[in-house]
Each structure stands twice: as C-alpha cells, then as structure tokens.
Design a protein that fits this description.
mainly alpha, Maleyloyr_isom, TIGR03086 family metal-binding protein, MDMPI_metal-binding
Length: 196
C-alpha cells in the first residue's frame, strides 16, 4: 500500500502521515463543513491539498500534475477521499525520494520555482501539514501539528510564504505571541483558536 512510500525527508513524511490520518478521521457527514480557509469546505481543502502534493511531484518528475486547478476546487469527489489523496501523497513521496540532500536547486511549483532540497521538501511538508490542521479543526479532531513539526516548518514558511500572499494563498500574518504551533499558524494568517 502507498503508506509504505517514504520520501526519505522526515519532515515531509511526518506531514504526509498527519494529512493521511486526519483525512481518515473525518466523519462521513463532515465533508461540507466550513474550514479556516474561509471560502472552502473540508472537501475543497482536501482537493487543494491533494492537488498541491501532486504538483510538487510533477515539478520534479515532469509527469502530469493535477487534472484540476487546486486553487479552484469543485467540492465534489469522484470516488473516496483516500482515492484522491493516496496517489498524490505516493507520487510526492516517490518524487522527493529521488532528491538527495546535496542535490542542487530543485524544481517546485511555488515561487521562485526552484529551492534547495531541504527547503523544497519543507515547502511540500508545510502545505500538507497546514491543510491537515485546517481539516482537523474543521471536523473536531485534535491538531496534527506538534511543537517539533511547527518549529521546523516556521523557517520554511518565512522563506516561501511572502510572495504567495499576493496570490491569496495565505492571509496576512497575525501579530501575536504563543507557543510554536501558534507562532506558525499566526505567521500563516490562521487563528489557532478558530471554530466553525
């Protein structure tokens, strides 16, 4: 099964596990619930997250990316949530497994379109982990973000997020002090205490 596909990048593998576990934990009736991504419901966040992971794979392999625009998710699934998510996570992990720590600039689907291997794999991890958090809080699950994960993701966020804000990919940062998880979420423009 695809769960055995590991990228070799610990942070990315942890983020994929978080996203996978949270998606499995969504109750059947919660797929239309609102999320911290104010214009998207749970299904749409899943579609976006899966599409982004496939885009990270595609940037490395040259294989086709998502067949839909991850920034305009339909909210309608063809098949089960796992049938959408698993191929994307498998493809992303397999692609990153081909990239060593000492590789040169690596293609990514976000500006500036190449990053160091550590930063690029971290960017894919950031995307997966934060959308896992979005889905978790929208569906009453515990946060999948650990303090350790948040500490590793914050420098990645600070390196890549600013250019993405102009496209609406992230809200403006929230000025606040908190723990490691809160600091990451605030930087990404998310309220750690968000409720539906």
């Amino acid at each position: 099964m695809s769960e055995t596909t590991a990228s070799g990048w610990t942070l990315l593998d942890s983020a994929h596990t978080a996203l996978r576990d949270v998606v499995r934990g969504v109750p059947a009736g919660d797929w239309n619930r609102p999320t911290p991504c104010s214009e998207w419901n749970v299904t749409q966040v899943l579609q976006h997250a899966a599409g982004d992971q496939l885009a990270y794979a595609s940037a490395i392999t040259g294989e086709p990316g998502p067949a839909y625009n991850p920034f305009a998710p339909s909210g309608t699934l063809d098949g089960t949530p796992a049938e959408l998510l698993e191929p994307a996570l498998t493809a992303c992990a397999a692609a990153w497994a081909t990239i060593g720590e000492d590789a040169g600039p690596t293609p990514v689907p976000v500006p500036p379109n190449t990053l160091s291997p550590a930063l690029g794999s971290g960017a894919a991890a950031l995307d997966a982990a934060v959308h896992a958090w979005d889905i978790a809080v929208a569906t009453g699950q515990p946060s999948p973000l650990t303090p350790e994960m948040a500490r590793e993701l914050l420098p990645v966020a600070k390196a890549i997020v600013e250019p993405l804000r102009q496209y609406g990919a992230f809200a403006a940062a929230i000025e606040a002090d908190g723990d490691d998880v809160d600091d990451l979420l605030h930087y990404l423009g998310r309220d750690p205490h968000w409720k539906a």
